[in-house]
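User: Hi! I'm working on a homework problem where we have to compare a predicted structure to a textbook description. Could you give me the structure for the chain below?
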Amino acid sequence: MENIKLAVITKDKDYGRALGLALVEVYKSFTVTLFQSVPIHSKLEEFDLVLKDFEKEDSEPFIYLVEKPSMTEKNYEDKRFRLYKYSNVRQLAGELLFIYTALTGRKAVPVKNQNIRIIAFCSAEGGVGCTSAAMAFARELKRFKHKRTIYISMEELDSTLEYMEPFPEGKSINEYLYHLFDEEGKDRFPFIESFLVFDSCGVDAFLPSPGRNVLKSLGVEEIQYFMESVMDMGRYDMIVLDLGSSLDKNTICCYEMANRICFVARGEEPQYKEERLLEYLTFLKGERFLEKIGRIANWYVPSQGESSEDEVQQRLLPSLCRFPEDPEAFSVQRGLKSISSDSAFGKAVGDLADLLFGKI
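Assistant: Happy to help. Predicted structure tokens:
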């Protein structure tokens, strides 16, 4: 991966230092040099991009950092760019990589991560807690296992923004797919950062587009290409897929790509739809396919006279773990759903992560 040399010209030394450190943290191939005034012309020729935060028009192709969102401008044809200087640094990094390709004709090529793993969460019906389990697991991987993790929803109606706050300037997954499948624009394929949101734990997700989840409209080959694009970014160690209860061709394709599948069900006893779904998967993929699926008993409440775990395993999928009924683990903070890692539910999620790390 080649280095991208940035010059930041600002009279505010503290802002410049903070911006430089943040940009390098987000994208390791950035190198940042600070200036408090415009250096001589030959000096600037050493840099791929030059950012400047005070408005004095120059003949140089500066990227201006402006004080208000209303002052922003992105004109690729005339190569005029004004970016909001206080925008989220991850969004800013994405914009800079767009501009880098437009101005230089070169792409920021990532290093592929050959060890990336996919964990899928699914269910036989809605309302059993599949999304909560998937999101809690993704946060566990990022926060306590230090795995770079992205959550991808394949639900008809994406639940991502119940857990993550969007950025006003963010680009949605719909725009990402436009660039991904645009043959003429592949040389300007964007840095994935421009299309992401993230939560307080650092889990990434694509910013959903309004309405129906756009991933549901893709063909099987397209969904494979999309997943490969995420894996080839070299940015992640883990992909957590939220498949919900769908059984369309795209979802079956994701089942096949997953290294492990966590089947979320209500309680310990098997349900009618659960048995039907497993019968269907066995019909499609054979009995060996079920070997990578394990069951999570969600909302588990111990009761007298319940079947032993051995008996349950004999008549159902292998049991991965039990998530206890724990309403206090869930809360809403600043309009976003929060899941406590210190709760009984959170500790069960940690046990699941410990268990799966030895099997993927």
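For your comparison, note the following. The longest strand covers residues 293-300. The radius of gyration is 23 Å. Good luck with the assignment!
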